[in-house]
Amino acid sequence: MSPLQSQYLDINGYTTTLGEMRLGDSLEFLESEDGHALKESVSTIVTSPPFPLLSEKAYGNLEGKEYIDWLCSFAQPLREIMKPDGSLFIEIGNTWVSGEPAMSMVPLKALMAFAESGNYTICQHLIYHNPARPPGPASWVTAKRLRLKDDFTHWFWLGKSADVRADNSAVLKEYSPAMTRLLDKKLDTSGTRPSAHKINGKNFFKDNGGSIAGSVISIPNTGWDNYHRWCTNEEIAAHPARMPFDLARFFIDLTSTTGDLIFDPFGGSNTVGAAAEVLARRWMTVDLESQYIAGSLGRFADESGTLPIDLKVSRANG
User: Fold this and answer.
1) Are residues 149 and 167 in the same domain?
2) Are residues 124 and 239 in the same domain?
3) What Cα–Cα distance (Å) separates residue 298 from each residue in 2, 87, 176, 219, 309?
4) Is 65 helix (H, G, I), strand (E, B) or coil?
5) What is the pLDDT of residues 21-67, one digit of tens each?
6) Which residues of 84-96 are buried (b: 16+ CB within 10 A; e: fewer)?
7) How far apart are the C-alpha atoms of 246 and 174, rounded to whole Å?
8) What does DSSP say about strands 261-264 and 282-287: parallel, antiparallel, or unpaired?
């Protein structure tokens, strides 16, 4: 079987009990009747638009001011579908200046311009760290050894105001061994720290179920899963920039509850939809490329490649 013969490459979307992935231009969707029907109904938007990379990706990418203008065109339409206390998480990766061991300011300029265009409040600037990312850019990191490995991306957590719904107790981290010992032995560590902060050590006697997550989120983006198995078996090209499942789950857990609506205008391999499905949230995603929608079916397939019976595929030819 060749990629062009896969039985799923002619699909224009699919639905599950909780969600839907559509084929199409996401800006056109947001400006359509169906898009307008979502007005102030989305609790959480999690999205990773194409980055302003110097090397062209299969899914397409722009550069410089053209990229910033394009990204900003989504700011207001996305704001309109958010609930008053909804959240938008948006990622921009790093870009390097062509031919130089220097980083471009375009990604941060784009994020700032996007926030300003939509009149958003920046709730928090987050960093996603991928410890499994290969060393790069190769010219400056592995060949000439002039720079360190580029292994993080920027995420902005945005809201219509600072009053977004969130609960950091929903994304607690496992206690460190040292903290576990404190809880077990109930050691009193009261005193003044070198920073001059006065600590009541007895506050550490209570087990809160885990430690509060920080603004640097470290999750390896690697491993063989049902998505890769599906794409391989169906001979469909996997998306070249897949969001880690646990990262999407983190943002959804942090800012939504069961039954809430989650949206991703750049669906890609539909990590956001799959995470929302697992967390019993309703969801909608959109992507411009039918091959990525076909591949994203693997997010819902089991190890044998069987799709759930409630997943309904729609085809371009009806």
Assistant:
1) yes
2) yes
3) 18, 27, 35, 21, 14
4) helix
5) 999 999 999 999 999 999 999 999 999 998 764 445 443 455 678 88
6) eebbbbbbbbbbb
7) 15
8) parallel
Counted domains in the chain: 2
- Residue 269 belongs to some domain of the structure: yes
Q: Read off the tokens for 248.
A: 């999407």
Encoded tokens for 14: 């699919």
Question: CA geometry: angle at 222 spanning 217 and 227, to 5°?
Answer: 115
In a domain, 92, yes or no: yes
Ramachandran class of 270: left when φ > 0, alpha when ψ lies in -120 to 50, beta otherwise: left
309 in any annotated domain: no
- 3 state DSSP class of 40: coil
Q: How far is CA 142 from CA 105, 136, 148, 149, 269, in A?
A: 23, 7, 9, 9, 30
- Please give the Cα distance from 278 to 189 (Å, whole number): 40
pTM attached to this predicted model: 0.89
Q: For residue 222, what is the DSSP state?
A: -
pLDDT digits (tens, 9 = 90+) for 93-107: 888 888 999 998 888
* Structural domain of 203: 175-211
For residues 205 and 216, membership in a common domain is answered with no
Question: Which residues touch 1 (CB under 8 Å, ≥6 apart)?
Answer: 234, 235
